[in-house]
Design goal:
Layout: E1 16-19, E2 28-34, H1 44-58, E3 66-70, H2 74-82, E4 89-95, H3 100-108, E5 112-116, H4 121-136, E6 139-140, H5 147-164, E7 171-175, H6 180-192, E8 197-203, E9 231-235, H7 237-251, H8 257-270, E10 276-282
Helix pairs in contact: 1-2, 1-5, 2-3, 5-6, 7-8
Length: 297
Amino acid sequence: MIKTEGILDQIGRTPLVEATHLHNNPNVKLLLKLEGNNPGGSVKDRAAFNMINEALQRGDIKKGDTLVEATSGNTGIALAFIAPLLGVNMVLVMSENSTEERIKSMRAYGAELILTPKEIGIEGARDLAIELRDQKGYFMLNQFSNPDNWKAHYKTTGPEIWEATDGEITHFVSAMGTTGTIMGVSTFLKEKNKTITIVGAQPKDGAKIPGIRKWPEAYLPEIFDKTKVDQVVEVSEEDAKIMTQRLAKEEGVFGGMSSGGAVASALKIIDTLESGVVVAIICDRGDRYLSSDLFEN
């Protein structure tokens, strides 16, 4: 009998590969978690599925309901892909200056997409999503305050990393956007070994790196707990871009700019280590950014 799985069963269980060309410390392993291998193309598949599925299981929503969410890209694509498979409708609010690939991907999956002026950024998109929730009665998942976001990574990403490294991981590095990934993985890994160092990458002042944010206090994600991050590394736009290009050319790892930011931060950590096993998240795939200047020298 042929054994098959549905597309949603392919979320998670992503590869962990060693980077062999980016640093020269023989006593440190740099491992990259390739989240672009998720069926929707990013780490956000995990949280999107968990947020919708758990809401359905609790009875917060039912099939046929309409959901609304603000996004900077990857979460929106994940929600657009997963929502119809779980029987709900999806309205997404996103800044108009998002890449063409992201916009077309969301529409291809059947989501309704509302583009907001680039001047108001993701904060303005979040405000509009709240207005739509209140005016039209849509259900808002609110990835920024929804514990099902980080719990997705507590249940899946963290255990996968622990198992794949045989518990030898010493440092975990992740870009910080909604902070769901770093919160969930940190919670799991710290339960296994409190000495594991959790490192968050955030942009330097003025740097614009898709997928990494330094939030104004009023918009700081409610799921974020600063006690779960041991160290924050600030990364420049230029360093993130250069590392993204290096990942593709030197490691064959085709990721987005937030991945470059995470790996650039990981290398700063490695420079301070005598030995260790460092795991960095490659958030998504680089083909989402081909219409931008990310891969132009």
